[in-house]
Amino acid sequence: MNEKIRKLRSESKNLKPSIIIGKNGINDAVIKNIKTHLRTYGVIKIKILKTHIEGKDKKSLAIELAEKCQAQLVDVVGFTLVLAK
Q1: Dihedral in degrees, nearest 10, Cα atoms 35, 43, 57, 67
Q2: Residue boundaries of the structural domains of the chain
Q3: In sequence order, what are the residues at sequence separation of 6 or more whose Cβ sits closer than 8 angstroms to the Cβ of residue 13?
Q4: Which of 2, 5, 55, 63 has a C-alpha 20 to 30 A away from that of 83?
């Protein structure tokens, strides 16, 4: 793991989730909202509710979300993930 990701992971521990993905899932509005937050803050924490994640792999869902937002996946802990610009 490189130094930049290690630093971002450390900083993200103090963040509160700024976006919550619920039963409506990942749609265009959510992607647009995530991109806006990334431009503004650089690093964001996203919480995925259990209603959306049922039967899906959390890690692959996080990677897919990062690709759709042109962001870097920093960390996945439980139902929470961190993305960086």
Answers
A1: 40
A2: 3-84
A3: none
A4: 55
pTM: 0.85
Of all residues in the chain, what percent are helix, strand and coil, respectively (each to 5)? 45, 25, 30
DSSP string, 41-54: HSEEEEEE-HHHHT
Determine the topology of domain 3-84 in CATH: Translation Initiation Factor IF3 (3.30.110)
Beta strands in 10-79 (DSSP E): 19-21, 43-48, 72-77
* CA distances in angstroms from 74 to 5, 12, 29, listed in the order given: 6, 9, 22
C-alpha distances out from residue 75 to 11, 47, 83, Å:
11, 12, 7
